[in-house]
Specification:
single chain, alpha/beta, Rossmann fold, six-stranded mixed beta sheet, 6 helices, 16% strand, globular
């Protein structure tokens, strides 16, 4: 049995302002630091991780560094594959700045980025990037191994929707995690299941 814990980074200033991250380097807020420290202590007490991966974004780097300070030992390997989607011309915009009623039925930036923003990453390309890395991670994982992945809401939503066999990419937003939330994916030879989770489905999660 292999446990892979997906951890969304702590709150950033743009999260607090409901702005779309994209790939802009935005540091964690004080609230973000506190929540990462709390969840890091929980992870250190419940898991003995063999490996840690993290997105190469500022938010994920700071989150991974804080988690290590709480006692999670593996040194993180930073990878672009765990980034959120590039938001293109939407990058840095607040929801109420998008205009034209775009956000009437949208709860997360996963939803907002369903259409392709000019200069951004196409949804199909983003899903392929994340799922390719996820498949390689699963193939490399050994029995009884514990792995931590510090990432963003788009990779987490993509992975969880794929495990759950979501019928449409339009459903991705339902799987978007809350800020600094974790979900444990448990893999055995026979199946892959979504285990322990404190994800708030449908909560605003910008980045």
């Amino acid at each position: 049995m292999t446990d892979i814990v997906l951890l969304r980074h702590g709150q950033t200033e743009w999260d607090r302002q409901n702005r779309l991250h994209g790939h802009v380097p935005v540091p964690l807020t004080e609230t973000g630091y506190d929540s990462v420290t709390a969840i890091g202590r929980r992870l250190a007490s419940q898991y003995d991780f063999d490996r840690m991966y993290a997105a190469d974004t500022m938010a994920a780097r700071e989150t991974a560094a804080l988690v290590r300070l709480t006692g999670v030992e593996p040194r993180p390997q930073f990878e672009a594959a765990w980034r959120p989607r590039d938001a293109g011309v939407f990058q840095g915009l607040a929801y109420d700045e998008l205009g034209d009623g775009m956000t009437d039925d949208l709860d997360t930036d996963v939803d907002v980025l369903q259409p392709l923003p000019r200069g951004g990453e196409p949804l199909a390309d983003g899903r392929a990037r994340v799922l390719d890395r996820w498949e390689r991670l699963c193939e490399r994982s050994n029995a009884d191994e514990q792995v931590l992945v510090v990432t963003h809401d788009f990779p987490m939503a993509t992975i969880l929707a794929d495990i759950d066999d979501a019928g449409s990419v339009a459903d991705l937003g339902r799987y978007a995690p809350g800020k600094c939330s974790m979900t444990t994916v448990r893999r055995t030879v026979a199946e892959t299941t979504i285990g322990e989770s404190d994800t708030q489905i449908g909560q605003f999660a910008n980045g």
